[in-house]
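Marked as duplicate of an earlier ticket. Keeping the data here for the record.
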Amino acid sequence: MADEPSNGELGRLIQALRGDIRDDMAGINARLDRMVSLDVYAVEKAGVAKDIAELAKAVEGLQALRAQDAERVTQTRRWLVASVIIPVLGIVLPLMMVMRGAGA
């Protein structure tokens, strides 16, 4: 009968077991407190998806503006060549030819 624990030893073992269980439950509760509920996660995920969609739309808008600016620059260059440079050359070249002919 010496192998069997006494009632006092059983009581201490049970108290120790309860303490271990209490500590384990406190650890679990601490981890659960740091977790986000599924509802909050779904709302946050939807918000992030919405933000990404808005950013994508803004980037597309900026790309369209950039394309318009590039087209505007091209049109300005064409106008400059057609309206300014060609007429100036049309005046300057004959004058240079006349001056060369007069100098010879």
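See parent ticket for discussion. The radius of gyration is 43 Å.
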